[in-house]
């Protein structure tokens, strides 16, 4: 679905992506994990050309993205990020229907699509008339997912989409999106600094450090054979949290 061929990116002389080559298969759920400044968000944003690469090439379904009009490319790719980015002066329905309206979808069809999407992300229909300031954080993020799905993208890019949510909402929304991914046959990439989240949500975990790929494995394989001490340290944090909870539950 997506291929990176010797991709490089520099900022002010600093190498942010260093000769990255990899392939993302159709229908896969991939987590990009790494410390702050590792290059994971930059890599994600190269796919929809929010970041333009300096060297190499990126292709979607075999077509070089550099040869495609940016607006056309982005309308085929859903994008959700931590800040959500809902337009405050627009209602929920207007936010969700924005891309279909830009694509020329008739009004009645847009209304039906909004209703379908709100149901898909488990939001009540009466929220459609509200504005973003009237929503909880979890509701607003669900609207963000609905808007990203409005144009029926095949690819979903997510940059720390659950980072600002409380733990319960974060877990519920993560599980809800994973179910959507499976039902809709999406190709999903999520950036997260939380190794536990990556291991539990994704089919494949790519660990990035200093602009290079340190590991690229399914969760079970990564847990049992990370090798790199930087990756072992991230896994150890998740293990310690789980061990502490077990100890509390056992009364130790």
Automatic annotation (TrEMBL):
<keyword id="KW-0813">Transport</keyword>
<protein>
    <submittedName>
        <fullName>Osmoprotectant transport system ATP-binding protein</fullName>
    </submittedName>
</protein>
<feature type="domain" description="ABC transporter">
    <location>
        <begin position="2"/>
        <end position="235"/>
    </location>
</feature>
<dbReference type="InterPro" id="IPR003439">
    <property type="entry name" value="ABC_transporter-like_ATP-bd"/>
</dbReference>
<dbReference type="InterPro" id="IPR017871">
    <property type="entry name" value="ABC_transporter-like_CS"/>
</dbReference>
<dbReference type="Pfam" id="PF00005">
    <property type="entry name" value="ABC_tran"/>
</dbReference>
<dbReference type="GO" id="GO:0015697">
    <property type="term" value="P:quaternary ammonium group transport"/>
</dbReference>
<comment type="similarity">
    <text>Belongs to the ABC transporter superfamily.</text>
</comment>
<keyword id="KW-0067">ATP-binding</keyword>
<dbReference type="GO" id="GO:0005524">
    <property type="term" value="F:ATP binding"/>
</dbReference>
<dbReference type="InterPro" id="IPR003593">
    <property type="entry name" value="AAA+_ATPase"/>
</dbReference>
<dbReference type="GO" id="GO:0016887">
    <property type="term" value="F:ATP hydrolysis activity"/>
</dbReference>
<dbReference type="InterPro" id="IPR027417">
    <property type="entry name" value="P-loop_NTPase"/>
</dbReference>
<keyword id="KW-0547">Nucleotide-binding</keyword>
